[in-house]
Design a protein that fits this description.
By secondary structure, the protein is mainly alpha-helical. Helix content is 65%, strand content 5%. Strand 1, helix 19 and strand 2 form a beta-alpha-beta unit. Helix 5 runs parallel beside helix 8 and helix 8 packs parallel to helix 16.
Length: 564
Amino acid sequence: MKASRAGTGKSSRTNQARTGNKTRRTNSFDAKIRRVELVCAIALTIAIVVLHIHRASHAGPLWRDEIGTFDMGTFPSLHQTWSLLASESFPLLIYMVVRGWALPGWHAVDMSLRVLGAVIGVGSLLALWSAKRLVDHRVPILSLALFGLNATVISWGDSLRAYGLGVLLILLVYGSIWRVAVSSTPKRMALAAAASILSVQCLYQNSLLVFAICVGGCLVCLRHRMWKGILSILAIGGAAALSLLPYIPTMIRAQQAGSLVQSDFGFTHLLKIFAAALGSDVLLWAWLIGGGCCVAVGFAFIVFRQMRDRSEPGHGDLAIFSATIMILGTVLFFLFLKGTQLTTETWYYIVILGTIALSIDISVELLAAPPLVKILRIAVSLLVAAVAIPLAWNQASLRQTNIDFIAEQLGKQGSREDFVVVIPWYYGVTFQNYYRGDTRWSTAPPIQDLKVTRYDLLKEQMTLDRPLQPVFESIERSLKAGARVWIVGDLVAPREGQLPPSLPIAPNGPHGWYSGDYLGVWNLELGYFIKLHSVSAQRVNMQLDQPVNPYEQAPVLLFSGWRP
């Protein structure tokens, strides 16, 4: 009996020793993996910072959208800024940031604003680190590769618009609401409320993401019957919503002005632009697989672990929180875009990319318990980075516009008798900002105030019978005097022997107030008139050594001689 007991004790000690050795090996492996993750995360962060610096040094002068932001932020009075909010796309915050940044009176204004963009871009990177640490106390790695190295995020997030600052703030909301859900202390509530209010004051659509994040936080609290946490999160979301009430009249006016650029498209169009924002097919698959993992992990914890870890928020709650934000936030965001009927561009999606990437990173982290999965997570992150870095570098190398260069050259080459026509009209925002010559010029149709993109003034032109007549008269006067006419922009003429089409005054056009119909016809009318009445035409070579953003890369045509 004693021998048996001794054998049993020895066997037990052997098993304990084996278990202890296995635990030590596991802990040692986990520690090594964490060090590798930290090294990789730091390396990716350095690469991202370099890309932001590269972007700031190559973006060059401001293009029309950025000029609108700068002008709105530097008007003599805040009342003027407020009165024109409907002509822009954002609440007040970004304009107040620009106003504060411009106070020192920088000598090189454009470069100083590029530095501001880089500061915001690096700030969003720090916000990503902060949110990941607040949520699961681990370093980001997959989100750095997916979001931080994304070409759209670096190029357009650093532009002088509100998208970069908007994603910075929504990432802080993501992390701070989770901390309130875990424990709603006054300090955490104050920080989450500040981040939420500033977030919706930066981008209107951030209100939808704040709502999704608050819903995720409330689900976590509800699961543990933490009623104080639910009330705290509802108060935070309510404060953010109330801060938007003063903008309701502005939103109504903006919706009326937005009818000029609205078009009837489906979700297929939105998904196509969203896919373009990701950069490539390889990266698209990485996002899709990551998103699928996020949904699967959240569903698995709901179905299979519903009754576990109820004492306090744990892995299951984190899985549900991140999956809720990704699913609900994405659905609401796309419904918002569909509801506005605005033709979207890739930079519209920057803010949703940030929340999706963080949710994916958190969910994959929860999956990465087996050693092989941990290694695979690091390998996939580095593979995504290898694909994303060249794309981001090439896009960050683009100059934002060439119209500043054209304006400078025409200021030197144009004479007082010459005439410059800028088409389409919104190129005039950039041209006016940089032109310093004596040559007369006009947009087609003539828009008098080009500080910002004034769709309300375009709407007035659409109600006129012959809005281009003043432009035609100036062209005729210059050509008859033996001077030249410069056309800045893409000019289209009808085919030989054909007349330009005509449209009734708005809103009696084929698509009501949609301005695209009128812009196309006006371009044809201008091309027909100048081709009919000029003697010679030539394309002026004003090429730059640096590739230019295709959204504002204008050619220059030169016409001379009058033909009745």
